[in-house]
């Protein structure tokens, strides 16, 4: 089966590879631009993106807004390809951050970790495309019905399966007991749902499969199930272009199957992460959260085992912290480049 180009509205990616957003700071302008230069879609993570700004500790909102503009500008200087941004729907100041990215003329906004029902109004009268992340046909239907109230359909839909990294759209018991549906099954169901809207409205809404993809065979299996595009994230971490510290990259290279675990995130959702001393110690003993960055509305600093922002920031800077990852890291065993990763996937 030959892989076709990926069309999202008037955007065309020569190869149907989307680099998933990884925060905090794992996928910024450097990694996103490198993927875009290879003909795919590069994604900047918008989660606490201002963590390296000098005033982040005292004014994280302004720091994040400034960094959104900076990273989009830097990506534009490095590529003429397609650049997306990923925002968690559950984050505080979500609308403020999305509007800033739209103001900076981002090509595409991908949004999950909650239902991004506000997206249509935030991109109104702009050229920015929007794509929700869903883990079921039911969630896709809820979002589409909500968006139609604003006379807007998704420009694409990302279907994220149970093997993805970071926060997962499944119940904790499903993840622990392995009773979830496979990504292929979910893609088939979402594709069927999307087909009804495509026929009714005379549009094309590509379905992008995501979560645990590692090989060309994985991609071909999902293409056979009807997927139009393929989102990968973890496989791009141990590349020279990835924006994270080398210690962070080595954690992926060195991780064995038993090192990747399902945790309950302070956000309240199940998540997949690599076992670290920080994570194990925090889960067993807890820790005192001295500083709240106000990233998630549902987070109570007095009740959580650790601060998710602090853990992610420490990890991306090369220290002991929280490292989200997808499943199936066994095949990720060396430092490489974005070009080598993509060549192996599509050739």
Description:
With 347 residues, this protein is of the alpha/beta class. The chain has helices at residues 29-37, 60-78, 94-103, 119-122, 137-148, 172-177, 183-201, 216-224, 246-254, 277-285, 308-316, 338-346, and strands at residues 6-8, 11-13, 17-19, 41-45, 82-88, 108-112, 129-134, 157-160, 166-167, 207-210, 229-232, 260-264, 270-274, 323-324. The protein contains twelve helices and 14 strands. Strand 7 (129-134), helix 5 and strand 8 (157-160) form a beta-alpha-beta unit. The model has no long low-confidence stretch (mean pLDDT 93).
Secondary structure layout:
Elements lengths: L5 E3 L2 E3 L3 E3 L9 H9 L3 E5 L14 H19 L3 E7 L5 H10 L4 E5 L6 H4 L6 E6 L2 H12 L8 E4 L5 E2 L4 H6 L5 H19 L5 E4 L5 H9 L4 E4 L13 H9 L5 E5 L5 E5 L2 H9 L22 H9 L6 E2 L13 H9 L1
Parallel strand pairs: 3-11, 4-5, 5-6, 6-7, 7-8, 8-10, 10-11
Antiparallel strand pairs: 1-2, 9-13, 12-13, 13-14
Task: Give a short summary of the structure.
Helix content is 36%, strand content 17%. It has 347 residues and is an alpha/beta fold. Strand 12 (260-264) and strand 13 (270-274) form a beta hairpin.
